[in-house]
Amino acid sequence: MTYDRNAVPALGPGLRLLPWETDTGRPCFLDADGGQGALSRLADEIEEDQLRDGADVLEGARAVLHDGKAGEYALRNALRAVTQCLGNVLRVADSRGARLPQPDHDRPQLSTGARG
């Protein structure tokens, strides 16, 4: 599975980008039900698995990079795994980011600066 964030159309309100693709490589979307349905829960579980896998692959890639004797085969395998996991993590980030509440630009912003 690959993820091309430029090929994914802008998410409309209430749509969730799912962590899998169709058999032809197209993105899948869910008309979100507030995240309470079985498909939403399954997508949450898969995203968590993908993030855990990404952490494991990162650890393995670091080990390969620190191994001065690692050959081309090991480096290519590590890079292949890292690119796959990075695509998954970007998909998760895009999916979750699209579900964040949008700021209300009409409301005055709270000042976080120091007063003097």
Concise summary:
This protein has helices spanning 38-66, 72-98; strands at residues 15-21, 27-31.
Write up what this structure looks like.
This protein is mainly alpha-helical. The chain is built from two helices and two strands; from the N terminus they run E-E-H-H. It has helices at 38-66, 72-98; strands at 15-21, 27-31. Helix 1 (38-66) runs antiparallel to helix 2. The model has no long low-confidence stretch (mean pLDDT 87).
Strand-pairing-aware structural class? mainly alpha
Radius of gyration: 19 Å
List the uncertain runs: none
First-last Cα distance: 54 Å
Count of alpha and pi helical runs: 2
List keywords for this structure.
2 helices; 116 residues; 2 strands; single chain; two-stranded antiparallel sheet; mainly alpha
Secondary structure blueprint with pairings:
Layout: E1 15-21, E2 27-31, H1 38-66, H2 72-98
Antiparallel strand pairs: 1-2
Helix pairs in contact: 1-2
